[in-house]
């Protein structure tokens, strides 16, 4: 990149930080624009656009101050509005693929046990855990957080079964994932087996499918979960979604493991 281009980019970033059109829900800084994910909608795979996939807001993705992504900000908003932070205090929590801005907030609420897990841990505070083979006893946790992870897992039904197994009766799981309302069934095929093909057909090189909303929710119920979906539109207006940079079409996928009778 040339020196003049670098100068213009730095100047634009500085001007952006002085604006007030957008606000990060996590760090409370205001600015003009969120950063885009991989160039935003203009560069998104056509298949993703045609299927009207509900997931990240790729045009309003990252905060220019704290780096939070839209998925973290959206969970913060849901947790505040529904007082879900109360599920953390003195509870056993497992958080898969823990977000850097969400983890400290969880710790503030003093869980009695807080396990951070990932198949590819970023540091030694995160345990190496395969979501399809969770190394904990039945009914260990009261809250399971899994934000945009299941689309990466080849055997997602096995992962759902494991989440159900380690949850206590009455426990809650938050299971966000991209999905399409247009699809009747999940879209995946063994022949889509290269990074290039996965990017074209699933929207990202490490995704394993596009979920159908219908089949995704049906799979959760078949595992035994009770659906407690919360619609974004029931809590927030469209202006608030735009201001805080979150997807107004993404609802909270909250499920409950029923209490034993």
Question: Would you mind describing this structure in some detail?
Answer:
With 261 residues, this protein is α/β, with parallel strands linked by helices. It contains nine helices and eleven strands. Helix content is 31%, strand content 15%. The strands form three sheets. A seven-stranded mixed β-sheet has the order 5-4-3-6-7-11-10, with helices on both faces. β6 (141-146), α5 and β7 form a beta-alpha-beta unit. The longest helix is centred in the N-terminal third of the chain and has 15 residues, at 3-17.
**Strand segment tally:** 11
CATH fold name, please?
Rossmann fold
The helix content, as a percent range, equals: 25-40%
Mean pLDDT across all amino acids: 93
**At CATH's second level, what is the architecture?**
3-Layer(aba) Sandwich
Structural category is alpha/beta
Topology:
Blueprint: H1 3-17, E1 22-23, E2 30-31, H2 46-50, H3 70-82, E3 92-96, H4 102-108, E4 113-118, E5 127-128, E6 141-146, H5 156-166, E7 167-174, E8 179-180, H6 195-202, E9 211-212, H7 213-223, E10 226-227, H8 232-235, H9 238-244, E11 254-256
Parallel strand pairs: 3-4, 3-6, 4-5, 6-7, 8-9
Antiparallel strand pairs: 1-2, 7-11, 10-11
């Amino acid at each position: 990149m040339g020196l003049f281009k670098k100068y213009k980019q730095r100047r634009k970033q500085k001007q952006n930080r002085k604006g007030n059109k957008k606000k990060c829900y996590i760090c409370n800084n205001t600015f003009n624009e969120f950063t885009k994910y991989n160039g935003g909608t203009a560069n998104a795979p056509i298949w993703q656009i045609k299927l009207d996939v509900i997931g990240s807001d790729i045009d309003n993705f990252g905060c220019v101050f704290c780096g939070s992504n839209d998925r973290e900000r959206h969970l913060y908003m849901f947790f505040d509005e529904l007082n879900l932070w109360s599920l953390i205090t003195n509870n056993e929590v497992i958080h898969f693929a823990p977000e850097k801005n969400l983890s400290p907030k969880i710790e503030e609420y003093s869980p009695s046990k807080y396990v951070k897990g990932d198949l590819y841990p970023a540091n030694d505070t995160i345990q190496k855990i395969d979501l399809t083979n969770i190394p904990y006893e039945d009914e260990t946790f009261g809250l399971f957080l899994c934000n945009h992870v299941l689309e990466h897992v080849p055997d997602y039904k096995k992962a759902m079964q494991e989440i159900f197994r380690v949850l206590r009766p009455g426990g809650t799981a938050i299971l966000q994932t991209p999905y399409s309302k247009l699809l009747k069934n999940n879209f995946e095929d063994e022949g889509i087996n290269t990074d290039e093909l996965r990017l074209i057909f699933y929207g990202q090189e490490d995704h394993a499918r596009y979920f159908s909303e219908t089949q995704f929710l049906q799979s959760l119920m078949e595992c035994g979960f009770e659906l407690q979906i919360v619609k974004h539109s029931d809590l927030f207006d469209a202006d608030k979604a735009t201001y805080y940079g979150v997807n107004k079409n993404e609802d909270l996928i909250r499920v409950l493991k029923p209490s034993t009778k």
